[in-house]
């Protein structure tokens, strides 16, 4: 019975990973599609490939943070296998529901913060607030602001530097160069997306396994977790969501290939650097900041601030909304289990 429940929760975690890729596909391909460097089908295949390749060099620092830096893992494990399964199932469902809602609304919200909110909301009814790791949550909350700001600064700096570098070239030649370079920048960003986002689910799967059937073993991330999570997110990206692509690639600002290159590179470098530090940042927030930074080099009027405002509100509500859904799922699940039992 316990093994069947564990397998089910691991499967739900991989479904979340797939939805994460589906939901965040726009982050990886919006700029390369909006600048018409790649067709939509080629763009998602390109992004999915580099999502998967990140399995062989992305590390597991973020996975360890998610597994032990949001919830007090030892306290949760001590509460018993049923508590572990209930908390993780409720957390995943809270994140999945919020991701699907924001996908339907066409808003590029954060899957990372949806999962963090789900974990917070599902933990409190079981362990209370003492079951949360305050320092880890504070770090995630801080980078809601810091990651888009870093992306904005790097995107702006790269755009200004690129404009200065090609200032004596004809627009046609510049466009041709950066169309080729955007293939590289898109690959960098897709690699960073796989590095950061696939690791979140590795951490969740490790909590499930080492909190239940392997509770006598030390917490660590196995190779098969890495491969399966990168496979799931790559498949999700391949079947990615077009509603958010339109928001990111067209509604926020108008991008040329040089702008797309700078936004993707600035965002990708930011995410890879922070992932190496074990900080589960939002790829959505970071690339949005980078795109806005690129747009502002053409003047503040080049950015559609109404769209940016809608995106920011989605960021603000993601953690509390996912937490609320997780609490509701926990209550319903507990009621159903009680009735069946």
From TrEMBL:
Keywords: Membrane, Transmembrane, Transmembrane helix, Transport. GO terms for molecular function: phosphate transmembrane transporter activity. It comes from the Bacteria. GO terms for cellular component: membrane. The keyword Transmembrane helix applies. It is found in: Membrane. Pfam families: PHO4. The keyword Transmembrane helix applies. It is a multi-pass membrane protein. Its main location: membrane. This is Phosphate transporter.
């Amino acid at each position: 019975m316990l093994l069947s429940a564990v397998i089910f929760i691991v499967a739900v975690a991989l479904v979340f990973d797939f939805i994460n890729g589906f939901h965040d596909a726009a982050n990886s391909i919006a700029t390369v599609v909006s600048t018409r460097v790649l067709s939509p089908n080629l763009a998602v295949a390109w992004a999915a490939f580099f999502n998967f390749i990140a399995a062989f060099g992305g590390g597991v620092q973020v996975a360890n943070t998610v597994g032990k830096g949001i919830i007090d893992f030892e306290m949760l494990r001590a509460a018993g296998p049923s508590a572990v399964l209930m908390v993780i199932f409720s957390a995943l469902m809270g994140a999945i529901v919020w991701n699907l809602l924001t996908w339907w609304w066409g808003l590029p919200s954060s899957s990372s913060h949806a999962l963090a909110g789900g974990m917070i909301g599902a933990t409190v009814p079981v362990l209370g607030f003492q079951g949360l790791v305050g320092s880890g949550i504070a770090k995630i909350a801080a980078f809601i602001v810091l990651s888009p700001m870093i992306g904005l600064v790097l995107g702006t700096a790269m755009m200004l530097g690129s404009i200065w570098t090609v200032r004596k070239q004809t627009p046609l030649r510049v466009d041709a160069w950066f169309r080729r370079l955007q293939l590289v920048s898109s690959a960098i960003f897709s690699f960073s997306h796989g590095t950061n986002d696939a690791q979140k689910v590795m951490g969740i799967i490790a909590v499930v396994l080492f909190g239940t059937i392997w509770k006598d073993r030390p917490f660590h991330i196995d190779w098969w977790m890495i491969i399966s999570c990168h496979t799931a997110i790559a498949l999700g990206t391949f079947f990615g969501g077009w509603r958010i692509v339109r928001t990111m690639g067209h509604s926020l600002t108008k991008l040329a290939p040089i702008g797309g290159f700078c936004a993707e590179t600035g965002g990708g470098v930011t995410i890879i650097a922070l992932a190496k530090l074990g900080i589960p940042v939002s790829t959505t927030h970071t690339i949005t900041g980078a795109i806005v930074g690129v747009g502002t080099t053409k003047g503040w009027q080049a950015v559609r601030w109404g769209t940016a405002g809608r995106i920011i509100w989605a960021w603000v509500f993601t953690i509390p909304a996912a937490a609320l859904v997780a609490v509701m799922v926990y209550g319903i699940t507990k009621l159903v289990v009680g009735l069946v039992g």
